[in-house]
């Protein structure tokens, strides 16, 4: 919950805008400001104070305790010009809150946390538990000193400007080790603990067995991702309570699923009780991984039979491939989601000229693998291979990466051993359509005239089908030095079904500084004026030119000289 505090009418107006935008996330605190701040600080995870920074500092200073537990505090000035991350930039989420508040209120976010101000990912903001000298190693990263990354477990981390060797170390490990003086340990959630239990098994017995198994194997409890068991034990109190104490989810599988898993230590007892020869080992192994701790039983002081079993498996981190559409070129048409994925990726793969467009958005430490025109399949294979190594990868393409771009060849290479995320972008057809007017107002199709990968006979058949179906057509890759006859041929096919006066829009470098566009007709278009940086949109039989703009009605019935009939 975000507590909102204000002292003046102007502050209250901005406060109420925030409350209206986030009704389920905010709580307004009325009354004397000091009392309101104290109440919100005790009850909320974050605060937004519409006060002067000096006043806010004096009010919250006596309340501060531990930065890992204190709420994040953002201060918005009286004029609503700035949203200042004041306290708890990382741990309290104030930096992200300042950005969100600034976006909503039109204020400039002010973030002074050292790592954020220079684009570095904070070691305590990687989404992983961390231990050790966080401040010291972060300072070394900021100062450009060599910091080594030792990844004992493959995991898709955001970019870090690390070196092969250094006096400081960031170690990614699930082993139960103590960090060195100049070391930070990152704990990936790589361990799965399978558990089985007799009815009524005490929580202390289940939890004690799990902790003992991890300790004796030299594994960190902070790297446990989940407890897993059979469906029949989903509500077993001892197992449920153990998962709650460890702070991890309890995942269950059917007896049939577990019975299909090959294990080293099957048993008749669970087969008779729940229908599978293994619970602990099978539940840990059902989604793959390396068995680190084979099935072991609890030991009871009273000498009675064990009531709990467990096994531990290490699952390698799944690499992550984000296929990102950059849009047509203008920075303001690059989506926030695309920007977030670019900043999240530790490896960027793309065409050199597209990399140049967004290089300034990359975080320090991002590894860039760029290549020239004609290497599309190589880039796709490279991106998938990097993801399979456990990296967080962004594969970029112009427009929407799924439209005549990199998504198709990449996903043809990828299998379910990596996570794949698609990030849509504004296509060239959409960007050109917005410039031309509304040519895509009814059914439309995009066709690439490049016959490098598609036989011309197939392309021609598609153009003819679009012509006969009276679809608006946008031509991609219309003409190059070595392909100068395809566009005239395609236009000729359309001319068999459309009048010479059919509107045609031509847009070159849509949304870029040297953008150029014109509206002409099917008979008036000179193909020699078109190149590979151009998209050509040919209207259907209902498309009209109105006030110099192409308009295709949502319906085909028109009245009063060009007004669309209400349907």
UniProtKB/TrEMBL annotation:
Q: Tell me the InterPro entries matching this sequence.
A: 4pyrrol_Mease (IPR000878), 4pyrrol_Methylase_sf (IPR035996), 4pyrrole_Mease_sub1 (IPR014777), 4pyrrole_Mease_sub2 (IPR014776), CbiG_N (IPR021744), Cbl_synth_CobJ/CibH_dom (IPR006363), CobE/GbiG_C (IPR002750), CobE/GbiG_C_sf (IPR036518)
Q: Which UniProt keywords apply?
A: Cobalamin biosynthesis, Methyltransferase, S-adenosyl-L-methionine, Transferase
Is Glycoprotein among this UniProt entry's keywords?
no
Q: What are the GO MF terms of this UniProt record?
A: methyltransferase activity
Instruction: Specify the Tetrapyrrole methylase domain's residue ranges.
Output: 320-525
Q: Which residues form a coiled coil?
A: none
What pathway does this protein act in? Answer: Cofactor biosynthesis; adenosylcobalamin biosynthesis
The UniProt record lists the CobE/GbiG C-terminal domain at 191-312
Q: Which domain of life is it from?
A: Bacteria
> Which GO terms are recorded in the biological process aspect for this UniProt protein?
cobalamin biosynthetic process; methylation
Q: Which residue numbers delimit the Cobalamin synthesis G N-terminal domain?
A: 36-116
Q: By its UniProt entry, which PANTHER family does this protein fall under? A: COBALT-FACTOR III C(17)-METHYLTRANSFERASE-RELATED
Give the protein name, as stated in the record: Precorrin-3B C(17)-methyltransferase
Q: What is the lineage of its organism?
A: Bacteria, Bacillati, Actinomycetota, Actinomycetes, Kitasatosporales
